[in-house]
Amino acid sequence: MTYLVSDIGGTNTRLALADESGVNTATLMRARNDSYASFDDVLADYLSKHETGEIDGICVAIAGPVQGTSGRLTNRDWSLKAATFGAQCGAARAAIINDLTALGFALLRNTPEHIYGATDRAKNGQALVVGMGTGFNVSPTKRSLAGATVAMEAELGHAELPFPVATLMRDDLGAAAAEFQTYEDIFCGPGLERLHTVVSGQNLGGADIMAAFEAGDATAQRTVRLFARALGQLTRSMMHQYMPRDGIAFAGSASRGVLASDALNDFIDSLTAEGPGIVDPASIPLSVITDDAAALEGCRQYLVQTS
């Protein structure tokens, strides 16, 4: 079987060939979305540069809502239909799934980097992927007794912030906390930048904020540590909402930047602070997905599992 797998984010699109054994990284192409008018153009470029042979199935993961066999990107004016890109590459099967759903399927083969929590406690087959890149979203996953993965779709980024997070923000920022109403208003790359603007009055990119944090800049320290504390409260809430005893895996540039820094201590202190709830935060393992191609493996897993 030959598969073509693709992951369309807000900034980049990745494509590669795959088979039953895994994703062929030698065939990986990364495309800047700004350089193309549509995914059709990206796919055409890939097909013109690679000898694909007969494609048995194609699966595309997108950063946006999916309805059946069609979907659209949240942060870019691209709409996709499985029938269209399937016909374009001559695939016998074509599927479109949410990018966080793809990461949920990828957990079967991907080993995220452990950052906190026990790994030897009782499991329940439930895990949660939390994506914080261009936007925010989650994918709850469940392993069946037969070993199959069920990865559920969500659009949590557009929901209202939990009360503990909203309270923390209001206590620190006062009236300026009104800027942050939804998950995606803060828990993503643009959200980190928005928070820094509120804190400092400066407009900096995420990488520059983290560099300033590492250099000891006072406003960047306040921004990143507040972000980490808020994320700790959010994680505590999600532990109770989803009961992911197999673990929570964070993905995306914002999570990798903040949780790989000294602000991890602020995150853990906030997560484990006294508060309502029955779940011991230390009993659930937390990790960070560091493989940028993990969603491609998730697309491959989806095609294998649904064949």
UniProtKB/TrEMBL annotation:
Q: Which organism is it from?
A: Shimia haliotis
Instruction: State the protein's name.
Output: Glucokinase
Q: Does the keyword Repeat apply?
A: no
* A molecular function GO annotation: glucokinase activity
Specify the taxonomic lineage: Bacteria, Pseudomonadati, Pseudomonadota, Alphaproteobacteria, Rhodobacterales
Keywords for the protein's UniProt record, in alphabetical order: Kinase, Transferase
- Source organism's superkingdom? Bacteria
What GO CC terms are in its UniProt record?
Answer: cytosol
Which PANTHER family does the record associate with it? Answer: GLUCOKINASE
